[in-house]
């Protein structure tokens, strides 16, 4: 038996008919979404056509995935948990927003090597006072809609949450404390005499490191990757989503959308909690 989630609490009769015509099966209402049980696997093209025409997030679950067994959610920060790219906002204070944002976009689309792109962007921040980071956090950082509801749902189910980012620990550590998350990993901006040097201090946290963080946490917590969810939006999250039992793209770039197990395009982050329910 195959299972597909429709991430909407309300489903019009016409919408249900369209879905069942494309994927014959049995629809079951849940509190925040619908579960479709069907005997044959859903074709990816059919799912994409339904998503686009109905403007609904519709996600077949991998055959072996058990939402009730999930013990860890590992999520990206920039443009996933929060609505901005922190480095673009920092660069704005240096008059370098356009140059940095262009590199960010290319890196997130998989057009540039992430580590090299990060070093190029950070170099443009040289000389900025460290106080700029606090100003960006206070004035610009905002959670994406549904983030707090997702965190609360994980808490109710005993799911641990890790925040991992190719961005900076200044922001990641504050969000971890503010939201009461369990683990965090990110890059550290080097500073001297109260100003940024334009360099990263220590190893770079990129795509490989994000995936490695999930695997290391599995070892610490006595979990297996199949009981983890990876959540992200850009090319730098591909390896993270690849090692997780369920890889979820949130408003993903095309390069990530192509490999994600599930996509949240229309709903908010609270919809990720739908994957935590028992659908067996």
Task: Give an account of the 3D structure.
The chain has 280 residues and is an alpha/beta fold. The chain contains 11 helices and 11 strands. The chain has a domain at 1-60: Alpha-Beta Plaits. The protein has helices spanning 13-22, 44-54, 86-93, 97-108, 114-123, 131-140, 147-157, 169-179, 207-221, 238-243, 254-257; strands at residues 2-6, 26-29, 34-38, 58-60, 72-75, 160-168, 183-192, 195-201, 228-232, 246-250, 262-264. The longest helix has 15 residues, at 207-221. The mean pLDDT is 97. Its cofactor is Mg(2+). InterPro entries: HAD-like_SerB, HAD-like_sf, HAD_sf, PSP. One of its GO terms (biological process) is L-serine biosynthetic process. The active site is at 76 (nucleophile), 78 (proton donor).
What is the topology?
Elements: E1 2-6, H1 13-22, E2 26-29, E3 34-38, H2 44-54, E4 58-60, E5 72-75, H3 86-93, H4 97-108, H5 114-123, H6 131-140, H7 147-157, E6 160-168, H8 169-179, E7 183-192, E8 195-201, H9 207-221, E9 228-232, H10 238-243, E10 246-250, H11 254-257, E11 262-264
Parallel strand pairs: 5-6, 5-9, 6-7, 9-10, 10-11
Antiparallel strand pairs: 1-3, 1-4, 2-3, 7-8
Give a nutshell description of this structure.
Keywords: Amino-acid biosynthesis, Hydrolase, Magnesium, Metal-binding, Serine biosynthesis. The protein has a domain of 60 residues: Alpha-Beta Plaits (2-Layer Sandwich). It contains 11 helices and 11 strands.
């Amino acid at each position: 038996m195959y299972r597909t989630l429709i991430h909407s609490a309300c489903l019009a009769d016409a919408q249900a008919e369209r879905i069942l015509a494309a994927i014959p099966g049995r629809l079951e209402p849940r509190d925040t979404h619908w579960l479709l049980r069907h005997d044959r696997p859903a074709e990816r093209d059919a799912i994409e056509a339904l998503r686009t025409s109905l403007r609904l997030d519709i996600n077949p679950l991998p055959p072996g995935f058990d939402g009730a067994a999930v013990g860890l959610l590992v999520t990206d920060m920039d443009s996933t948990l929060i609505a901005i790219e922190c480095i673009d906002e920092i660069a704005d204070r240096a008059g370098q927003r356009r140059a940095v944002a262009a590199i960010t976009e290319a890196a997130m689309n998989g057009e540039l090597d992430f580590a090299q792109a990060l070093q190029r962007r950070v170099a443009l921040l040289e000389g900025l006072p460290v106080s700029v980071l606090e100003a960006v956090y206070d004035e610009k950082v905002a959670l994406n809609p549904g983030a707090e509801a997702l965190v609360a749902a994980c808490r109710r189910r005993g799911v641990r949450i890790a925040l991992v980012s190719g961005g900076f620990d200044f922001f990641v550590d504050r969000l971890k404390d503010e939201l009461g998350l369990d683990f965090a990993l990110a890059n550290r901006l080097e500073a001297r005499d109260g100003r940024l040097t334009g360099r990263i201090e220590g190893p770079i946290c990129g795509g490989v490191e994000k995936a490695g963080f999930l695997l290391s946490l599995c070892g610490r917590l006595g979990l297996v990757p199949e009981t983890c969810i990876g959540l992200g939006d850009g090319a730098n999250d591909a390896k993270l989503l690849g090692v997780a039992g369920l890889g979820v793209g949130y408003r993903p770039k095309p390069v990530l959308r192509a490999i994600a197990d599930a996509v949240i395009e229309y709903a908010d982050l609270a919809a990720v909690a739908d994957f935590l329910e028992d659908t067996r």
